[in-house]
Write a structure and sequence with these properties.
Domain Response regulatory: 3-120
Helix content: 55-70%
Domain HTH araC/xylS-type: 461-559
CATH class of the largest domain: Alpha Beta
CATH architecture of the largest domain: 2-Layer Sandwich
CATH topology of the largest domain: Alpha-Beta Plaits
Protein name: Two-component system, response regulator YesN
Strand content: 5-15%
Number of strands: 10
CATH superfamily of the largest domain: Reverse transcriptase/Diguanylate cyclase domain
Keywords: DNA-binding, Phosphoprotein, Transcription, Transcription regulation
Oligomer: single chain
Modified residues (4-aspartylphosphate): 55
Strand order of the largest sheet: 2-1-3-4-5
Shape: flat
């Protein structure tokens, strides 16, 4: 909803225009009024204004001075000057700005309405055409590397929020392509102290090494080098020419990469006095599998043979003893595959997304991500399986943390009985645990929805009572939102969502109801009733009452007196 502020030192003009635009439902305007430049500035300090319809010739603060204040506070605001001054020299300053227009007071009300309508349509067109997006695209080159890193890191971590597509690669001007697999390399400085307080020095060291890697690899390869949250290097590499990953070209590329990385290690030691280790994927990874290989290489980078640093490990050259032992502990191939699936999920951001979707109330997304874990978990037979216990504890902590923060413990117990998250002995099998997690998750979302409804009902009830108790005062959306500490637009939406009525409709109905109650008392003058229900003049009140009821206030009073007699 756009906000319109009407400013003039002549009250009769302001009140008339206020009633006109307040009744124009097709514009969906939230209308405010001010009888001076000073009062207008108070509104500008309180809330955003989208359109200001103002007189130029006002005492103390005139329209041109007000214009400067408007653009200082709200640069995107549109101004329409309503003035009796036709001298070009006086208005010349105002019309130099593209967001300023003017009409003469001598022109009829239709011209004023037309000017406001055109301004409203202009604002909505600007929003639709995505001016903000275009501006962002024009400036994206300033921080292109940061955008590239953020996008690729999300892909590597397995985020469901991003996909590898040609459109995204082209937009980010990535030197690699989404149409070919990549050879993945993960590296770290062995002697980098993460506890070192000299942040700038640490960053300088890291970027010096990054430049060295870039110098060795980019001459004959297509590659991108990014840094993760732990200051580890991740290098995504493709041959310069498009070749099939099944050909010898990829094998030669891998040999070349290993040779160049050895050179990088030597140069880092000689020139920068740093040791650096690398883990290299032996096979090119597709973009669908890249997250799994990324996490596997991170684990491999911690693998050590002896006590030496500066290692260069290729994933298929490391003994698979651990995997063989793990497989021996599983009763079936299906169970082993389920365990490996769970193990790969523990190295992604999946549990972070599960927590975020729970907090945001995105039920479908939450269960979509949760099922990725629960399905393989239910296939584990061994109750003492450590991977299953790790996954179970991660989900448990997520749900327990949420319930504790929002005080849901007693409500959950009343709905589904005892909370059985303390330890796994409460379950006969992992399948039993999975069933309980699903049941508890459904319960939590039901309680979440009820709690949100309760909060909304409390807000709506408070606002309705406040309106009825303050009918003669300012009942603007801004003032109402200040009472419940909500954004005005959000309050407007939630009121309509919960009551199926606009706030203005409720206010008008409350004013009519109160006016009818007062009109039965013949001792109260109509202009006094007008003030008590929020109208500056009896004329505006009469117009409003008649449009709502079909009769004037006096006619309503007369008919009531006739009925009583």
């Amino acid at each position: 909803m756009l906000r319109l502020l009407i400013v003039d030192n002549e009250e009769i003009i302001v009140n008339h225009l206020f009633e006109v635009f307040r009744g124009m439902d097709h514009l969906s305007l939230d209308v405010y009024k001010a009888y001076s430049g000073e009062e207008a500035i108070e509104w500008l300090h309180r809330t955003r204004m989208d359109i200001v319809l103002t007189d130029i010739d006002m005492p103390n603060i005139n329209g041109l001075q007000l214009m400067d204040e408007i653009f200082k506070q709200w640069p995107q605001c549109k101004i329409i000057f309503l003035t009796g001054h036709s001298e070009f020299s006086y208005i010349y300053k105002a019309i130099q700005h593209p967001d300023v227009s003017y009409i003469l007071k001598l022109e009829d009300i239709e011209k004023v309405i037309q000017a406001v309508e055109e301004t409203v349509f202009k604002i909505r067109k600007e929003i639709k055409t995505g001016d903000l997006i275009r501006e962002a695209k024009e400036k994206i080159h300033i921080a292109l590397e940061l955008f590239q890193e953020g996008y690729l890191l999300n892909l590597l971590k397995g985020s469901s929020m991003v996909k590898a597509t040609k459109e995204q690669f082209d937009q980010l001007s990535l030197p690699i392509t989404d149409e070919a697999p990549v050879i993945l390399v993960v590296g770290k400085l062995d002697d980098l102290s993460l506890q070192d307080n000299n942040y700038l020095e640490k960053i300088q060291q890291i970027y010096s090494v990054r430049q060295m890697i870039k110098r060795y690899l980019t001459s004959n390869l297509k590659c991108v080098i990014i840094l993760d949250d732990h200051f580890r290097f991740t290098i995504l590499i493709q041959p310069k020419e498009n070749v099939s990953p099944a050909t010898e070209d990829y094998v030669h590329t891998l040999h070349y990469i290993k040779g160049m990385l050895e050179s990088v290690q030597q140069s880092c030691q000689d020139k920068l006095n740093h040791s650096i280790s690398f883990a290299v994927g032996s096979k090119p990874a597709t973009w669908n599998d890249i997250s799994q290989q990324y996490h596997a290489l991170h684990s491999l980078l911690n693998y050590r043979i002896g006590t030496e640093n500066t290692v260069l490990l290729v994933d298929n050259e490391v003994p698979s003893t651990v995997e063989a032992e793990n497989k021996a502990e599983c009763s079936s191939d299906e169970e082993f595959e389920a365990e490996q699936k769970l193990l790969s999920l523990t190295t992604t951001n999946l549990f972070t997304f599960i927590e975020q979707y729970l907090e945001s109330g995105l039920k479908d997304k939450y269960f979509e991500e949760l099922e990725q874990v629960l399905q393989p978990l239910s296939l584990i037979k061994n109750k003492n399986n450590l991977v299953a216990q790790q996954v179970y504890c991660s989900i448990s902590m997520c749900l327990l943390s949420y319930m504790n923060r929002w005080g849901l413990r007693d409500k959950v117990i009343s709905k589904i009985g005892e909370i059985r998250f303390v330890n796994t002995v409460n379950f006969c099998s992992w399948g039993d645990a999975v069933t309980y997690i699903r049941k508890l998750s459904v319960c939590v979302f039901e309680l979440q929805k009820l709690e949100q409804k309760r909060r909304a009902d409390n807000v709506i009830s408070f606002i309705q009572n406040f309106i009825i108790s303050h009918l003669g005062e300012d009942l603007s959306l801004v003032r109402l939102s200040e009472q419940v500490y909500l954004n005005p637009s959000y309050l407007s939406r939630i009121f309509k969502q919960e009551t199926k009525k606009n706030l203005t409709e409720f206010i008008d109905a409350a004013r009519i109801q109160r006016a009818k109650e007062l009109l039965v008392n013949e001792n109260i003058k109509i202009h006094e009733i007008a003030r008590q229900v929020g109208y500056e003049s009896a004329t505006s009140f009469t117009r409003f009452f008649k449009s709502s009821t079909g009769c004037s206030p006096q006619e309503y009073r007369d008919s009531y007196v006739m009925r009583v007699k």
